[in-house]
Amino acid sequence: MHIFTLAALLRLQRGVRLHHICQRHLHATHATSSEWCVGQPFSNPLDELKKLLQVPLIKDENLIFKPTQTEIRKAQNIFQGNRVEPLKGIVNLDQLPARDLPEIAFIGQSNVGKSSLVKSLFRSLNPKTNHRLTVSKKAGHTRTLRFYEIPRKFSLVDMPGYGENMPEHFVRSAEAYIMTRQTSRLKMTFSLLDAHRGMTENDQEFLDKLQNSNASFCLVLTKIDKVPHSHVLRAFLALNEYREKHLSTALPQIFLVSSLSGAGIPLLRSFIAYVTGNIRISGH
Ligand SMILES: Nc1nc2c(ncn2[C@@H]2O[C@H](COP(=O)(O)OP(=O)(O)OP(=O)(O)O)[C@@H](O)[C@H]2O)c(=O)[nH]1
């Protein structure tokens, strides 16, 4: 039986030192991006990583968000079957949208893949959004808070990145939005980290700020297509260990995604639909 509830997850802390276990039990592998189970209606890339370890990757499976295929399809319909309205980018918080919708924010180092992820969540059936959401190899491309609204359901907020080419207004725009908006509309902040680069000092600094702010946040490893599974596993375990030691308010679930291949995207859509109150998940 699932015991997953958001409130319960926020209280949970576990003390497993998986990183060290990993060093002893990791199978050598050169599996590549194409081997993530992208085509399956429900596929959590974490399931692929489990095959690389001889010990459980997750101590308590009950903590993992596991929607049914019907629930995943419902979430899919919300993202792909509705009109998406890209709003004008803002920098000043007094210009925040007035509409009373739940909001979800994506934050992370510049170039980590925030815009690509938002684009991937809405992909294909919304050509207008695809057109308006631009990505770039150049770090620091996104300069403003950009809201993508599904009317009457929720808004996704793409943010400028911290680190290289960070806009000078970052602290009073992006950071202030996350720290203050959580008391009203912001339901979850997704903190993105690059599976290829691993966690950087900038990431640690920002995650520590999130922890101290009591924001509801969870971690996402991006670009999992870019490196072998063994590399993703190491990045996952290092991040999980940091979470267990330092980020007691982060949700235990770490999402793995590739905006390029689509791996992990249906699961993330379901989670967003769930935390914004747009679908119910059985047993949770
Ligand atoms: N291989 C791979 N490349 C990706 C993925 N997601 C993003 N990228 C690439 O990474 C670069 C940066 O992507 P963006 O989505 O613009 O990153 P961002 O975090 O919004 O960047 P800033 O606007 O600089 O903050 C682009 O060249 C993307 O094509 C992914 O899942 N896999």
Automatic annotation (TrEMBL):
Domain annotation EngB-type G: ranges: 100-278
UniProt keyword terms in alphabetical order: GTP-binding, Magnesium, Metal-binding, Nucleotide-binding
Coiled coil: none
InterPro entries: EngB_GTPase, G_ENGB_dom, GTP-bd, P-loop_NTPase
Any one GO molecular-function label of the UniProt entry: GTP binding
Keyword Metal-binding part of the UniProt annotation: yes
Entry GO terms, CC: mitochondrion
PANTHER family (UniProt xref): GTP-BINDING PROTEIN 8
Full protein name: EngB-type G domain-containing protein
